[in-house]
Amino acid sequence: MAYVLGQILDVQVFNRLRQRSAWWVAPAAAMFLGNISDTLAFFFIAFYKSSDPFMAANWVEIALVDYSFKVLICLVFFLPMYGVLLNMLLKRLAERQPANRFQLS
After folding, report:
1. Structure confidence by residue, pLDDT tens digits, 50-76
2. Burial 54-83 (b: 16+ CB within 10 A, else e)
3. Which domain holds residue 96?
4. Alpha-carbon distances of 7 from 25, 84, 91, rounded to whole Å
5. Could you give the CA distance from residue 91 to residue 85 in angstroms, rounded to a whole number?
6. SS (H, E, C) the chain
7. pTM, to two decimals
8. Do the beta carbons of residue 5 and residue 38 sit within 8 Å?
């Protein structure tokens, strides 16, 4: 349930922001909001008022550490890879567009 909530929010945010001029705004905002909702929902459902006293007392701190690692991984690996792949795709589409225009005429 938490994962689905995070994914739906991620897609909605990305879809609304993807037409911005800066390519990184949509994936970054989607990542921040999707991951925080996923993480907080999961830890709240799993550990709020848990029978394990340690988890019941510390679930918020553990969730924030988990979220921090998710953000770090996304910023270091996924966001740059998205930029590289987007750039490659746009270059290929730009190269093919003039050829397609002549074939259709």
Report:
1. 999 999 999 999 999 999 999 999 999
2. eeeeebeeebeebbeebbeebeeeeeeebe
3. 2-104
4. 17, 23, 29
5. 10
6. CHHHHHHHHHHHHHHHHCCCCCCCHHHHHHHHHHHHHHHHHHHHHHHCCCCCHHHHHHHHHHHHHHHHHHHHHHHHHHHHHHHHHHHHHHHHHHHHHHHHHHHHC
7. 0.76
8. yes
What value, to the nearest 5°, has the Cα angle with vertex 64 and ends 61 and 67? 155
Residue type for 11, please?
A: V
How many domains are contained in the chain? 1
